[in-house]
Amino acid sequence: MIVNASPDIGAQVRHLEPDGGFTADLRRFSPVEHVFLTNADLDHVLGIFQLREAGRICITAPDGVWSSLTEGLCLPQALASYGVIEHTVASTDWTEIHGLQVKAVPLKNAAPPPYSPDAKGSHGVGYLFKDSDNGKIAGIFPDVSDLDDELAEVLKGCELVFFDGTLWSNDELDRAGVGSKTAQAMGHLPVSESVAVLAALELPKCGYLHINNTNPILRPDSPERAEVETFGLFVAEDGMSFSI
């Protein structure tokens, strides 16, 4: 199971299963059984096209995200030519999927993607995954515009949290000379504004992912990276694994 399917999903699978995945043999095959979509941004959904090799794709997504994929991107229609597409609306109640308890957490101010601006419904969620045996919870929230008390209370119950690390500062793209949109306009809370709040929750493990290439926390020797680590948080890297 994966959360979001980025365009490099093929390389990710080969990294995890160097002797299997998409190159197992002459069969058309994918080891991915289920995709949980947090929103319909292209960097989260384009990898689904590669998963057509499986012949059956199970997708959990909010209604607004599915509407964007259907009406804007026509993704389900295109993939239906290759196999079965199964869609389940992301539930805000605990639901068992492949032996794990899963729950969607709706996010405030989530907007539809630019390619489907008129799509109706819920356009952004985070997910909680709970081990049915020990009750421990992992949460993933790659697109958060507001870390308010309500969301903080949800995160408090987690053993492990992956949080939106897109940009360090609100005007980062402008200062880097690569764009004029602010982090908030793009629906992302800057790391500089979330790091102290997350640290105050005293979570066992908490780190940043979904990091833009302009974000200085990617540089191990940057003062911004040092600040994140001083607060006791980590920066996610390819190949990391966690047990809870």
Structural class: alpha/beta
Beta-strand content estimate: 15-25%
The main pleated sheet reads as: 7 strands, mixed
- Shape estimate: globular
| pLDDT averaged over residues | 92
Number of helices, where a helix is a run of at least 4 consecutive DSSP H or I residues: 8
Low-confidence stretches: none
| Record field, number of beta strands | 11
Radius of gyration: 18 Å
What can you tell me about this protein's structure?
- By secondary structure, this protein is an alpha/beta fold.
- The chain has helices at 9-16, 42-45, 63-73, 75-79, 149-156, 172-176, 191-200, 223-230, and strands spanning 2-3, 34-36, 56-61, 84-89, 95-97, 100-106, 125-131, 137-141, 160-164, 205-209, 234-235.
- The protein has a domain at 136-244.
- The chain contains eight helices and eleven strands.
- Helix 1 (9-16) links the parallel strand 1 (2-3) and strand 2 (34-36).
- The protein is globular.
